[in-house]
Amino acid sequence: MSESLELEAQEQSFSEWLSFSLGESSYAVDILRVREIRTWERMARIPNSKEFLLGLINLRGAIVPIVDLRKRFGLSARPLDKETVVLIMTVMTNQGEKTMGIMVDKICDVVNLTDDDIKSADKFDLTISDRFVHGITDVRGAMAVLLNIDSVLDTVDF
Amino acid sequence: MSDPMERFKQVFFDESAEALSAIEQHLLDIDLTAIEPEVINDIFRSAHSLKGGSATFGMSRLAEFTHFMETLLDMVRDGQRDFTQEVVDCLFECLDCLRNLVNHYQFEEQVNGELIAIVEKQLQELIDGKQEGKPVEGSGDSNLNNGLVHGKHWEIHFSPDEELLLSGNEPLRYIEELLELGSVNVVCDSSDVPPLNQLNPIHLKMKWLITLDSEEAISEEDLAEVFLWIEDEATLEYRCLDQEAPQLVSSALAETTKSAPDVKVDTVSSDVDNAETSKAKAPAKRTGQSIRVELSKIDSLINLLGELVITQSMLSTFNNMVQFPELRRLQEGLGQLERHTRDLQDGVMQIRMLPIDFCFSRFPRMVRDLCKQLGKKIDVVIEGENTEVDKTVIEELTDPLVHLVRNSIDHGIEMPDEREALGKPRVGTLKLVAYHQVGNIVIEISDDGKGLAVDKIRAKAVERGLIDANAKLAPQACKELIFAAGFSTADAVTDLSGRGVGMDVVKRNIQSLGGQIDLHSEENEGTTFSIKLPLTLSILDGQLIKVMDETYVVPMLAIIESIKVKRVDINKIGEHDISFKWRSQFIPLLNLAETFSLPETKPDSEDSLLVVVVEHDNQQFGLVVNELANHQQVVVKSLEANYIKVDELSGATILGDGSVALILDVGALMSRLKVH
Amino acid sequence: MAKILTVDDSGSMRAMVAHTLSEMGHEVEEAENGQLGLDAALATQFDLVISDVNMPVMDGITFVTNLRQQANYRFTPILMLTTESGQDKKGAGKEAGATGWIVKPFNPQKLSALVNKVLK
Questions:
Q1: In a 3-state reduction of DSSP, which class is residue B427?
Q2: Which of C38, C31, C41 is nearest to C10 (CA)?
Q3: Which CATH number fits the domain that encloses residue B499?
Q4: Closest CA–CA distance from residue B659 to any residue of chain A (Å)
Q5: Tens digits of per-residue pLDDT, B158-196?
Q6: Record's PANTHER family (chain C) (predicted)?
Q7: Is 1.10.10.60 the CATH number for C3-115?
Q8: Nearest to residue B348, comparing CAs of B396, B381, B305, B296?
Q9: Are residues B517 and B580 in the same domain?
Q10: ipTM metric
Q11: In this complex, do C118 and B168 lie within 8 Å of one another by their Cβ atoms?
């Protein structure tokens, strides 16, 4: 499905991305994968889980895990504030579609990108695994890293 | 499945499964010395419905096969053939063929042509076998209809019996139907109609002379086809007006049609008698009305209900008198809501419940087949087959039970001679019992066979390296070694006990359903396996516990008791709490906060610990917790749906305040005891 | 539009008959054996009754015999579902008062043709 979504986007020759920030850095995810944006809420901690897993929330009856994206990317922790949000994402795994959340510092923009706007990230050290990265782009003069959410939230790493 | 035909097919498949098990049950129950006609009727009826349905839905191989079967059953029913053991055996084999054929059409299973050919041959032999001796009635009539007269112009004399209207027939309909064959000229002969004062309106006194002119040649059969339904209720003469047609044939035919009713009346009345008597004898087992619903629809209903339960308990947390001055009335309403929600929950869960018979019913046949193979004699006794349990539990339970039953037959019950020598009845008994016990179903499989020999098990366990040769083991612990992984291996398992699956797998399967299996065995007296399972997998009877600030759910099934243990009574090694004395023996302690690496938020100063004693695999251990909260039913949600399996957890649930609580897997926690 | 009662112990058959007849615009009621059929027929006046022969509790022949004895069902068309092997059953059905029969297997087309034959 991810492929077909991307294909569809390509046919229209542009795609929409939701950008957000972690500290000074900008990232963006495919907006078609964003189900909803929630404020921070209490979570049930998962015993003995990876450090980047914040816990589980009740999303209208479904049990949904939330990932602290800072920790996932090896960035330092930061206290929660009013702008902290959780993006509920649709993730394609080899066991089918799952719903998971990522906690980010704050959301910024929705940007429209043509294929030409998306550049290769090969020559940069983005400090995160290459498989997480779809490419880079220019958002208001600053670089934003376009994320491949299926890899970022790959349960193999959980 | 929007195509209605496909939907009807699905219903047909469900019915087939029911019909097959009904036939099987009758065959198993049959007492050849005192056969009840209703039993034969029932078997016949099941085969007959299969035939009708399969033919209708275009499943020709199934229709063909059931036709064979039906022919034999019809002969048995009519007394042309005796119901012998041979017939019973053959019918059992027919069942295998039928299952195969049904599966072929339902699941595209390969047709076992070889088996079917063999069984069809047997059927044919049984059918032919008795046909010579006993007279065959009623066949051969149809040959008379071979008058191959064709013509375009016909004259039809149609004189209905005066009672024709009483069978719901209307003569004009038949005349109208002739219009489809060509143009019609009708002359009504009303000369027999009595004067009005003597007229009885229900008696038909009219006759018709019809001439039919058609574009194409019509045979007498075509005309007979039109009047087929009333050929016995009218005198019909068909005369071909075409030059070349020989007139003799048609009048001969008229003779036969006229004389036919007299012959048939006798057979008919005896048939009606049969029907009457069988009706009188029919046992009072009129099945309840039912509808078929897809499981997914029920599941979504259950999910919604789970939400309702959560909403309801969420509302009940608003008990602030200041904020809600009309709290009392609100509370009354909430109380009612709670009761109704609970009833609704019970009701909905009930929909998914099926009698355990769905699983038990296969065993009599299986035991019978295995006995034949092994030369053993075993009676199967089933009790509590109507005990209800969730459909998914039944599905998961079937394999372990099959294994246990095979095990009893293979290793438990002795050969008849051996039993006799031991002073036991030659026929062994295998008993399957099911009953409810506070929110659980208990299933017992027991045999009166040789029981487990402690010495042999011990020797084998040593040989397999499962225990040390000098290990001290109580007899019961020793017997339970059969559940150890690696105990039953290929050479211990004959082809009967099957598929190289050991008792360890059986045990694991039961445990993964949140259940437990116990064993009781006495040498030479027999073995009983007792399985305890929750009634449903989607709702769990849970005890909420708090550890630091986190809430977890412990399945009630695992809990023995909750006690306070003084700190001084706890045995420590270094910093760790290791064990305490419970009911005069030491049991291990597991500090949940520690196991789950919880941040310490509570000062460790109290002079006693709250311990929940839980049991898994007949072994007890204590869970150290901070607080006991509610005891409540929780809706089990899978962690894997959006996350991954977590070792110590069997799932999660949503509490009244909307928060998530994790459900502990007691068995997995126990295996962590040693990790520390 | 007619009111039709279909009596059959096989749910799939009943469903097919009922579906076909409703598609034709008729109002259909179902019963799963003769006894329930009789109960239904006494509660509602049907314009046509279609019954299977082999059924538990009360078979089709007994059902039709009983139904015919009801004054309001003396002239009602009653069709029986039979199989080609049930020659003698056709006779029994007629004797009990059936109007005609429908031979299994049948498809929806054949069923509607035969139903049209008895419904004006």
A1: coil
A2: C31
A3: 3.30.565.10
A4: 6
A5: 888 888 888 888 888 888 888 888 888 888 888 888 877
A6: CHEMOTAXIS TWO-COMPONENT RESPONSE REGULATOR, STRESS RESPONSE REGULATOR PROTEIN 1
A7: no
A8: B305
A9: no
A10: 0.89
A11: yes
